[in-house]
Design a protein that fits this description.
With 312 residues, this protein is of the alpha/beta class. The protein is 47% helix and 15% strand. It folds into three domains: 117 residues, 3-Layer(aba) Sandwich (Rossmann fold), CATH 3.40.50.10800; 71 residues, Rossmann fold (3-Layer(aba) Sandwich), CATH 3.40.50; 75 residues, Rossmann fold, CATH 3.40.50. Helix 1 runs parallel beside helix 14. It binds 1,3-dihydroxyacetonephosphate and iron/sulfur cluster.
């Protein structure tokens, strides 16, 4: 009885939050952008859901004055860099990306000094200060194209060693890698894929390039989260094992109710992505918090690296 009552109350609260968010969004002239790993209820109130590349492109083109960014800190920073005249809010200021924090601007400077003359490409999962030290930026959906377009056979790549190794295997370039990684994708092991393949023998395996090389070897397709969303609409396959953060399964199922998506590993959950809740989105709009603003000088330099990527 108590359980039913509690569930009823929380449903009511959710509805109240949604209504208030919609009302405040209009009053503030705000748009809500959400990453594919966000909680289902946050994806549901978003105006646009996407991968890192899609979200940064969207941030650059929106007309609204305020962007509520439901994702992690480096993504909100990218939005602030590309839309310097907008107010960018992140509902939880502690929602960071541990991989992005694996290299600091100082470490990047020292690393570059060790390898003079080599161009530097950084994954978008890096802080604005690190981007400001780089020549090019890339995301998981365009990394190979960016590396191929860089006019050098030796390139420094940071911070993700797994994405870096994967790109190196797909191009003729020599990549010198920083040893960062995403702890969520690193949790996914070959044995998880093999177990799931046993359970669902007809299923294809799609993996994010942040996964370990041994996992990528077992995958039928290697895709960014945006790539998975697109491929899910196109494929004739009815069963797919998804090797990435589990939050994307919500969107895949919602958009493709006739197909089955299974997480490769149920515990591959990014706790930072999950820090954003409906209640925090509401508070963010109410109190206009937490503002993410990249200092002008850093933003200008970081923007050069992002612009070079967008041009490619
Ligand atoms: P995508 O650009 O593929 O959405 O990846 C972002 C990310 O944080 C993966 O862990
Ligand atoms: Fe960072 Fe990994 Fe979380 Fe993506 S899933 S935001 S790379 S910690």
């Amino acid at each position: 009885m108590l359980i039913f009552f509690t569930l009823g109350v929380s449903k009511l609260k959710t509805q109240e939050y949604i209504e208030e968010i919609i009302k405040l969004k209009k009053e503030r002239n705000a748009i809500i952008l959400a990453h594919n790993y966000q909680r289902g209820e946050v994806q549901d109130i978003a105006d646009y859901i996407g991968d890192s590349l899609g979200l940064s492109q969207k941030a650059a083109e929106v007309n609204e004055k305020v962007i509520v960014f439901c994702g992690v800190h480096f993504m909100a920073e990218t939005a602030s860099i590309l839309a310097p005249n907008k107010t960018v809010l992140i509902p939880d200021i502690t929602a960071g990306c541990p991989m992005a924090d694996m290299i600091s601007a100082q470490e990047m400077k020292e690393w570059k000094n060790k390898y003079p003359g080599r161009p530097v490409v950084c994954y978008i999962n890096s802080t604005a200060e690190v981007k400001a030290e780089c020549d090019f930026c890339c995301t998981s959906s365009n990394a190979i194209r960016v590396i191929e377009a860089v006019n050098s056979n030796e390139i420094l790549f940071a911070p993700d060693q797994y994405l870096g190794s994967y790109i190196a295997s797909q191009t003729n370039k020599k990549l010198i890698l920083w040893d960062g990684y995403c702890y969520v994708h690193r949790m996914i092991l070959p044995k998880h894929i093999l177990e799931k393949k046993k359970e669902f023998p007809e299923a294809e395996v799609w993996a994010h390039p942040e996964c370990r090389g041994e996992v990528l070897e077992l995958a039928d397709k290697i895709l960014s989260t945006g790539g998975m969303v697109k491929q899910a609409r196109l494929t004739d396959k009815k069963e797919i094992i998804i090797a990435t953060e589990t939050g994307i399964i919500y969107r895949l199922k919602k958009e493709n109710p006739d197909k089955n998506f299974y997480p490769a590993y149920e515990y591959a959950i990014c706790s930072n992505m999950k820090k954003i809740t409906l209640r925090k989105v509401l508070d963010s709009l109410k109190e206009m918090k937490f503002v993410v603003k990249v200092p002008e000088e850093t933003a200008e330099k970081a923007k050069d690296a992002i612009d070079r990527m967008i041009r490619i």
